[in-house]
């Protein structure tokens, strides 16, 4: 295959990034937005040693599972790169992905349950982070075209809560009217790099964060005065990110107006969320994820449980009423402060939260002779470190409840726990991110022998 060549290809599979996979003359080709069962004419965009990337020129045979996407920009940008696949097939795709990863490491005896569907299939996100750039002389918000930093302007973000889109557009218009320059990443100049909007779905409280190159800019006070008049806005921050980087947020947040946090609810618990704290983005599905994890943990009132990678304490605090003691660990200091506050405002007295890296604190706790009954882990995409796993096992938990947003690292870590005498017979995918290829899973590893 050569660049710009047009090839006819039958799509036989879907990659974990939701690209159609086919073969031409023994070589693999990944075709953007093509679906299994389709025959397409595709233009080769890029070639590598053993594979190539291509885009559809024409669909010769269309899959019966293809659905019409409201805006082609959703597929161009990767904002909703699975939106062209019927929802029930998206759920099957996620289940299959986990099954294939297990099969690759000869763990196909472990059953992968059907993916738990999300109650909302669009407009489910309680948080948006959108780039701000100048396009054709105008400040725009949108999403980057896939594998690039070209901004595709958007007004309807499809997966965001509709109120969040309303606020994003209102802030965009305020920035335009006040002639605030958008960030230019080539020249590393301008002011506003990203807009972040978070909404407490249960409370309606909205936080606006202007991610800026400088700590202040001319006219900022007037911009803030106007943003605070937008219905629902309770908190306005400036996040200062002066670096030449693709990382969205800088390390310092300055409160410009209103509250330091917004409130939201999961089940009957209230949570205060500050700007840099992690909070599950699909509010309609979060209680179902936690219920599944807590139910499968089979908690007892004598249990000491660990909530590792605890964010603002949501899992541990949801489990606290079933157990004797909760001990949480989280690396973001502001989130630990939120977790402590959240225990207090919900009158939960058996939960303690500690700031630090889980892989540093767990070995210290194990050395001091801590004995645990159940350990909940909910790490970022890179999963757990071997040091953490080693130390966690030393504390003798009967069960490890693993909540994962990356099935590849989940399967890797499951193998390490299995080497140490833990086992599981099922993994449950939970759809936290409809219209995208992202997969969330829960599995419970039980101790079968003393190591
Ligand atoms: C997927 S989130 C889960 C948060 C929480 N359990 C929830 O459901 O909202 C992962 C969390 O791990 C934290 N984190 C990342 N690396 C960490 C580390 N090395 N040690 C402890 N926490 C870490 C992140 O700040 C984030 O809050």
Write the layout of secondary structure elements.
Blueprint: E1 6-14, E2 20-24, E3 27-32, E4 39-47, E5 51-61, H1 73-77, H2 87-104, E6 111-112, E7 127-135, E8 138-144, E9 151-153, H3 162-177, E10 192-199, E11 206-212, H4 220-227, E12 233-240, E13 252-258, E14 262-266, E15 269-273, H5 286-297, E16 304-308, H6 314-319, E17 325-330, H7 333-345, E18 351-355, H8 358-367, E19 374-377, H9 386-394, E20 399-404, H10 407-419, E21 422-423, E22 426-430, E23 440-447
Parallel strand pairs: 3-5, 6-22, 11-12, 16-17, 16-19, 17-18, 19-20
Antiparallel strand pairs: 1-2, 1-4, 2-3, 4-5, 7-8, 7-10, 8-9, 10-11, 12-13, 14-15, 20-23, 21-23, 22-23
Helix pairs in contact: 8-9
The chain binds S-adenosylmethionine.
Enzyme class: transferase
EC number: 2.1.1.190
Pfam families: TRAM, tRNA_U5-meth_tr
What is the domain total for the residues?
3
Classified in CATH, the superfamily of the largest domain is Vaccinia Virus protein VP39
Q: Per CATH, which architecture of the largest domain?
A: 3-Layer(aba) Sandwich
**What is the strand content?**
25-35%
How is the CATH topology of the largest domain named? Rossmann fold
Radius of gyration: 23 Å
Q: Can you identify the CATH class of the largest domain?
A: Alpha Beta
Number of E-state strands: 23
Largest sheet: 9 strands, mixed
Distance between the termini: 53 Å
Overall outline: globular
* Assembly level: single chain
Bound molecules: S-adenosylmethionine
Structural category is: alpha/beta
Overall helicity: 10-25%
Total DSSP helices:
10
Q: Which residues sit in consecutive blocks of at least 5 with pLDDT less than 50?
A: none
Mean pLDDT: 96
């Amino acid at each position: 295959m050569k660049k710009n060549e047009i090839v006819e290809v039958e799509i036989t599979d879907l990659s974990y990034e939701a690209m159609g996979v086919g073969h031409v003359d023994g070589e693999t080709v990944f075709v953007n937005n093509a679906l299994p069962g389709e025959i397409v004419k595709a233009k080769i965009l890029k070639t590598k040693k053993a594979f190539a990337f291509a885009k559809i020129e024409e669909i010769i045979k269309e899959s019966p599972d293809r659905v019409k996407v409201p805006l082609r920009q959703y597929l161009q940008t990767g904002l909703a790169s699975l939106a062209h696949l019927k929802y029930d097939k998206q759920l099957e795709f996620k289940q299959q992905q986990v099954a294939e990863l297990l099969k690759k490491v000869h763990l196909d005896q472990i059953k992968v349950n059907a993916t738990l569907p999300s109650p909302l299939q669009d407009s489910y996100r309680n948080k948006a982070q959108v780039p701000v750039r100048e396009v054709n002389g105008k400040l725009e918000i949108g999403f980057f075209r896939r594998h690039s930093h070209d901004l595709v302007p958007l007004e309807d973000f499809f997966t965001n809560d509709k109120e969040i889109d309303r606020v994003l557009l209102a802030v965009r218009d305020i920035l335009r009217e006040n002639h605030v320059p958008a960030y230019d990443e080539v020249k590393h100049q301008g002011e506003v790099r990203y807009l972040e909007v978070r909404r407490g779905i249960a409370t309606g409280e909205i936080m606006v964060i202007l991610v800026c190159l400088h700590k202040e800019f001319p006219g900022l006070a007037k911009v803030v005065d106007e943003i605070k008049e937008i219905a629902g806005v309770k908190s306005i921050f400036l996040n200062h990110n002066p670096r030449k980087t693709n990382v969205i947020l800088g390390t310092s947040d300055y409160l410009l107006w209103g509250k330091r946090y917004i409130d939201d609810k999961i089940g009957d618990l209230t949570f205060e969320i500050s700007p840099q704290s992690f909070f599950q983005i699909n509010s309609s599905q979060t209680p179902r994820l936690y219920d599944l994890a807590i139910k499968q943990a089979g908690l007892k009132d004598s249990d000491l449980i660990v909530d590792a990678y605890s964010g603002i304490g949501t899992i541990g605090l949801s489990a606290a009423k079933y157990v004797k003691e909760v001990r949480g660990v989280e690396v973001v200091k502001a989130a630990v402060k939120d977790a402590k506050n959240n225990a207090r405002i919900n009158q939960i007295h058996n939960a303690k939260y500690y700031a630090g890296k889980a892989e540093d604190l767990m070995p210290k706790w194990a050395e001091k002779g801590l004995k645990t009954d159940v350990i909940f882990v909910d790490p970022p995409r890179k999963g757990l470190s071997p040091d953490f796993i080693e130390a966690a096992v030393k504390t003798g938990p009967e069960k490890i409840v693993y909540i994962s947003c990356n099935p590849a690292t989940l399967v890797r870590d499951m193998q390490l726990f299995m080497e140490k005498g833990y086992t599981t017979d099922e993994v449950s995918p939970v759809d936290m991110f409809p219209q995208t290829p992202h997969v969330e899973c829960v599995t419970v590893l039980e101790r079968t022998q003393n190591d």
